[in-house]
Amino acid sequence: MKKILIPIIVCALLLSGCWDEKDIVEMQYITAIGIDYDKEKEDYILYAQVVSFAGVAKSEQAATVPSKVWVAKGQGKSMEAAINMIYDKSNQIVYWAHIGIIIFHERLLQHGIDQISDSLARFQQIRETNWMYGTKDSIEDILLVTSLFSSAVQTTLFNPEEAYHVHSIISPIRMHRFYSDFTEKATTTKLPMISVKEDVWRTKGATNDSAKSSGVFLLKEKKYLGGLPISQFRGLRWVTKTTKRSPLRIKLENNDEVNLIITQLDPHLKINELDKDKFDIDINANGGIIEVHKEISLPILKEKIIEKMEKEIRETYENALNIKADIYNLEELVYRKDYDRWKHDYKGRFTLTENSIANINIDITITKTGEYDYQFSY
């Protein structure tokens, strides 16, 4: 009898571990959240993107049904109250550990994110590797955007590094890096701004919106400074070490132009040796020609590339200076390299002027010319 009971008991113990397992269709998986602030009511508003797995194929089915995307909304005097409202409204178990992106509305940035930051840090299901974004648009509209194949989690918002490696404009930032910069002295945090682009893709009888990078929000020492559209910070890419590949258009006479791809950037920012209150920027980069319609000598082309890059760098600096932002983190350079001078000379009142950038030295190497032959074009 014992010989029969022992195997049965062992099998029962092994099976018991699966008795409380939930099927994926019985749970609500939160894949993204966005947080807004209502100044009149003094309420935090939490939007949660929920992906349904009700259409997941069974073993006997031939294909899956596109998963639906829903957006839940919670509101309250605190982040916890907003989360609890979502719990109260849900008729299934809510699971937060699959969150991939977090979006802050500009209204929240203006109000301050200290309380939100504390709540996010204490929420065990939220990982510190989530991608961070800011927006001026409706968070609900952004969270309802799907890819061409009806997936909300296959958009570039969830995979920004791949898009950045192809077209480097503003470096994506993860949650742990965002808060590290956000609380660091002398450091300006750059939060990618996203917006909804309507009718980007079109098919028969339907169109598809897209959520794309549209600018950058600048914050320093827990304070919101303002935002810049892409057109006003094109020079940032040339002084960012993580830039992989970025296009550059050079206009010539008679509406002709040369289109290039700039790669392998190696920028260095340093304190000017003659005037410690000024800074120099040295950049080495490679350029590849992808389109040219008019013959131009290589020295003249390189001169125009350098001129265009320097112009973009200075214009970006000035645009940021207009909102009192140190977009190139020049103060951080002093803070890291010459802390005693930062502490005693500036006494926490570091200021920049239009002339703070003294020299910009750019060395560009044309590595690819396509079918265009420069053999006799010097």
From TrEMBL:
Q: Where in the cell is it found?
A: Membrane
Show where the Spore germination protein N-terminal domain sits.
Answer: 20-195
Which family is annotated? Belongs to the GerABKC lipoprotein family.
Keywords from UniProt, A to Z, are: Germination, Lipoprotein, Membrane, Palmitate, Signal
Q: Kindly provide the name given to this protein in its UniProt entry.
A: Uncharacterized protein
Q: Which residues form the Spore germination GerAC-like C-terminal domain?
A: 214-370
A Pfam family hit? Spore_GerAC
InterPro entries registered for this protein in UniProt = GerAC_N (IPR057336), Spore_GerAC-like (IPR008844), Spore_GerAC-like_C (IPR046953), Spore_GerAC_C_sf (IPR038501)
Q: How does it sit in the membrane?
A: Lipid-anchor
Q: Can you name a GO cellular component term?
A: membrane
Ranges annotated as spanning the membrane: none
* Natural source organism: Cytobacillus kochii
Q: Which NCBIfam families match?
A: spore_ger_x_C
Signal among the record's keywords? yes
The record's annotation in PROSITE patterns points to: PROKAR_LIPOPROTEIN (PS51257)
Entry's Gene Ontology BP terms: spore germination
